[in-house]
Amino acid sequence: MIKLRLFENVIICIFMYNNPHNSQTFIIHRKVIKRLKDNRGWKTTSYKPGLKIIVCIKQVVATQNMKIDPINHTLIRENMPSMLNPLDEIGVEEGLRLREKYGGEVTVITMGPMQAKEAVLRCLAMGADKGIIISDKAFAGADTIATAYTLYMQIKKMEYDLIICGKISTDSETGHVGPHLAEFLNIPQICYVKKVDLDIERRRIIAQKETDEGIEIVEASLPVLLTTTMGLNEPRLPTLKGMISSKRKEIEIVTAKDLGGSLSNYGLRGSPTFVDEVFEPPSRKPETIFQGDPKEVVEKIVQVLLNKKLISSRSYSVC
Questions:
Q1: N or C: the chain end with fewer CB closer than 10 Å?
Q2: Domain spanning 51-265 has what CATH number?
Q3: Could you tell me the pTM of the whole model?
Q4: What average pLDDT does the chain have?
């Protein structure tokens, strides 16, 4: 499939009309097309049939000792150990399995600092076809709505049949970005997905989703957005061959200027929600274990409760 297919067909018709019985018609046609391309610098472009799958991923802090900016109350990610969000990794795996079954391509997309390239490279090593990193200082401090809007500004320019997000990220656990993104794109969304089946001919998806009451079976038309949950699949490990080939795959860097639109819609400025206060919950005091004769243990416990004024001396009696 090439960009000039319509133009080629026109030339074929001309040759066949003038020389309907000439066996050299198609040979001449190929030579003419090649000469036109060589002279004008036209290039062929391949077309991959099948599903266009986009997986939204996030690089998260890989430690419990997170640091918070004391001024804007956002997470400090610089110089912190990071990893690919586990539920996003499940999303990448599901995208790869669907591509292997139905054909097509898988594109991973992330918004964050340039260090997020490590997470993108891991996805490419798993087998994703290409990656996109949306990175700009203007995006810093974004809440879930501003994050979803930034992803929307890029994805709306792309072709897609299926968008996959992890249901939550381990560093914030809001579960908002996927549903927000579906609303911006005005497409159906199915959250907490445990199993995916596709009817390609009808362009329909049948998904099993997790609910408090059990499993629901939901059907929707493509394009659709899914959010993954644990148990959907077991992500593959990147192979050495995959890690080597990931270095040669395309990673596109997108800035605020590339996305367009008003800067007031991005980052902290475009976030309608904000963090008012950040504090650590009080640590639990060490537990006290009483051992010994049951009667003595009871007396000790009662004495502790008396000292804490949780009971009065008249409200108990030791048998």
A1: C
A2: 3.40.50.620
A3: 0.71
A4: 82
